[in-house]
Structures are given as C-alpha cells and as structure tokens.
Design brief:
By secondary structure, the chain is an alpha/beta fold. It has a single domain (26-357), classed as TIM Barrel, CATH 3.20.20. It is built from 13 helices and ten strands. It has helices at residues 2-16, 24-33, 46-54, 71-83, 115-120, 124-142, 173-187, 223-230, 232-239, 265-275, 298-308, 320-335, 341-357; strands at 35-37, 59-62, 94-97, 99-101, 104-105, 146-147, 194-200, 244-247, 281-286, 312-314. Strands 1-2-3-6-7-8-9-10 form an eight-stranded parallel β-barrel, surrounded by five helices. Helix 4 links the parallel strand 2 and strand 3 (94-97). Helix 3 (46-54) runs parallel beside helix 4. The longest helix is centred in the middle third of the chain and has 19 residues, at 124-142. It starts with a helix and ends with a helix. Bound molecules: 2-acetamido-2-deoxy-beta-D-glucopyranose (2 copies). One 2-acetamido-2-deoxy-beta-D-glucopyranose binds next to loops. Residues 51-354 form the Glycoside hydrolase family 3 N-terminal domain.
C-alpha cells in the first residue's frame, strides 16, 4: 500500500513538472517520452543505453533481426539504466513489437494462427482470446510491454493488402469486432502488456500494391463507409479498453484531402478523440514510411505528427542517432511554440499514465 502511494506521488510530481522553457534538460527528457528508437543487430547499442541514461529515449521497436536468447536480459538492463535517469518517474520504457499472429510475429512463441485463421475458426471470439493470452505470455518472457497489434482493418477482396498475409480477421466489421475485443481484453488482462489498435481508420480497402511503407496511398472511401464499416471495430476496441491506437499513413480525402491520417488533426482529434471518444495514447506507424515522402525530413514529419495530436513517434530505420535527433527536434518545437504547450503537457500525461500502469 505504502509503495502504491509512493509511486503515485512520484508520477504526479513528474506530471506537474511543467515544461520550463529555460530547462533544456527537463525538456529533452519530456521529448524523450515521445520517441521510440530502432537499431540493427541483436545487441542494444551503447548509444541507446546512453539515451536511456540521459532520458532522451522513450522506448524501442524490436524487429525479428533484433531478437535472440539475450534480448530479454538486455531489455532488463536497459530498463534498469533508465530507472536511474531523471526521466524515469516510476514509468518504464515502452518496448514494442509487431506480434499479430501467423506470419507477422517478431518473437518466437506464437500466436501461430493468423488473424484470418482466427476469424475462420469455429469460435472466433474464443480463439482470439487465446491468441491474446498467448501474446501476453510471450511478451512477459521477453520483457516486451506493447504489442503493435491487433489489425482492425476489414479486408475487401482476396489477396488485397491486408489479406495477402492474412492480417485481417475478416471481411465484415462484425467478424473483425468479434475477434479484436477478446484479443485485446486477454492481452491486457495482466495489466503489464498494452495492445495497439491499428491502422486508424483502416487499411482494409487497400489493394496489395497500396503499401504505406513504400508509397503514398489514397483510399477514396466515403465518410459513410468509413463510419459504418472501417471504424466500427474501433468502437469495440475502445470499449475493450485498448491502450493505444496507431493512425495509418494513408490519405482519406473524405475527411482530409491534404494530410494522411497520422498527420491529420481532423482524423486524430475530430474523429478518434472526439467522435469515438478515445482517451489513450496515439502511436505512429514507421516515420520513415514511403507514404510520407512529400512531408519533409523525419524530424519535420515528427513535429507535424505531434502538432496533429500524435503522442509517440516510432523512429524506424535502425539508426539510434535518428531517435536522438527527433527528440531534439520535438524539444526545439516545444521551446519555439510550434508545438502548443498545453497539448504537449496533456500528451506527456497520457504517456506517463500508460507507462506507470505497465510498471
Ligand atoms: C543523450 O545521449 C545520446 C546518445 O549518446 C546523445 O546523442 C545525446 O546528445 C544525449 N543528449 C543529452 C541531452 O545529453
Ligand atoms: C466475405 O467473404 C465471403 C466468402 O468467404 C463472401 O461469401 C461474402 O460475400 C464476403 N462478404 C463481403 C461483405 O464482402
């Protein structure tokens, strides 16, 4: 009980430590909360450890090539280094990966069934619940605490972008909802693992060639279709208490003709937060994505995303130095007022709430 009270006080103190413009050190530590780094190879680089020590790191995204039998202990050491930094505030780093099931698993141990196979099983809800439990137990053994899954897309035709690798639970919003609710509930049941509903408002209508990792993608769906098909599983996921949502990098002209969802105030604030009532953390898809080639450097993209309401930027590309420079760019944008200080403070609070819950 005492320790619970103590950690609550520590967290509140951190939240109330408003960004003091003259304090470079505290601002870079706040900026660190918003940045997920990537790296190459199976050894966490010393630059990542020093970023944890000085607080300019918010977490990691692991890919298959990062993972071996030493991964769990390396993550444990990184969390310990971070816990000794001034940024810690009782809230651990977010260690994220894509564990969708089937072919899209970065860690060994399942779920072996793909989303599509779960949707086609005799009792999709029960099968999805087991898959969620499976992810939680794999993550516990690897010291990983955020799954960048489930995919909420409602696929449209056999072999399209999501169906090609069996990443969609089904071709109706009813079937997808039936699966994602229990998957999220069971994955998050221990309180130590958080799920991410992606890619808002949905990539189910993308054709196989429409891969936002590679090229700009425009999905010309009507707002009515988006509301009555693609966004329906988000209502279920939010009711199930999903902790994070990842907006997509596709453009949906029905609501915003200029900015892809993840750079769009209309999508993040008007649709996700206001219309659907999501109160959790937003996390970006890969900031190096080809879909964003017309939106500047990764630092400019990160600032635009945060201005639109994105809480966390995933700095893919396997260069920890890119993570450092994105954190510096965010700190500069807060200092100069390009990022609104009230929105920044609210975003810091959402991230710290999520992280302290995972401690
Ligand atoms: C934190 O550490 C990283 C990695 O060594 C370094 O690049 C960065 O400049 C440091 N930042 C601060 C504010 O000390
Ligand atoms: C979904 O796929 C099934 C075949 O697996 C098909 O019969 C059905 O018409 C499809 N539904 C929609 C809404 O496309």
């Amino acid at each position: 009980m005492l320790s619970i009270i103590f950690s609550a006080v520590v967290v509140l103190t951190a939240i109330n430590a408003a960004p003091t413009p003259d304090s470079t050190q505290s601002l870079i530590q706040e900026a660190g909360y918003h940045v997920i780094y990537s790296y190459s190879g199976t050894t966490i680089p010393s630059s990542v450890t020093s970023a944890a020590q000085n607080g300019s790191l918010g977490g990691l995204i692991l890919f298959g090539a990062n993972v071996n039998s030493q991964t769990a202990s390396q993550i444990g050491s990184l969390q310990s280094a971070y816990a000794r930094s001034g940024a810690y505030a009782g809230s651990p780093l977010l260690i994220t990966t894509d564990q969708e099931g089937g072919e899209v698993n970065r860690l060994p141990g399942g779920p072996t069934l793909s989303a599509k196979q779960i949707g086609q099983s005799a009792n999709p809800g029960t099968t999805a619940a087991s898959a969620g439990t499976n992810v939680a137990s794999v993550f516990k053994s690897y010291n990983v605490n955020v799954d960048l899954a489930p995919v909420l897309g409602v696929f449209r035709s056999p072999g399209d972008f999501l169906d090609e690798f069996q990443r969609s639970y089904g071709n109706t919003s009813g079937l997808v909802s039936q699966c994602v609710g229990p998957f999220i509930t069971n994955m998050q049941a221990s309180g130590k693992v958080a799920a991410t509903a992606k890619h808002f408002p949905g990539l189910g209508a993308a054709e196989a060639s429409q891969n936002t990792d590679e090229v700009p993608v425009t999905l010309g769906l009507s707002l009515q279709t988006l509301h009555t098909v693609d966004e329906v599983p988000y209502t279920t996921a939010i009711q199930a208490g999903v902790k994070l949502v990842m907006p997509s990098w596709a453009l949906y002209p029905a609501l915003d003709n200029t900015y892809p969802s993840g750079l769009s105030k209309k999508w993040i604030q008007q649709e996700l937060r206001t219309r659907l009532g999501f109160k959790g953390v937003t996390i970006s898809d890969a900031i190096t994505a080809g879909a964003l080639k017309n939106f500047g450097t990764i630092e400019q993209r990160a600032v635009s995303a945060v201005q639109a309401g994105m809480d966390i930027i995933v700095v893919t590309g396997n260069q920890p130095s890119d993570g450092v420079s994105v954190a510096k760019a965010l700190a500069d944008a807060v200092r100069s007022g390009k990022i609104d200080s009230n929105a920044w403070a609210a975003s810091n609070q959402r991230i710290l709430q999520l992280r302290s819950g995972l401690a």
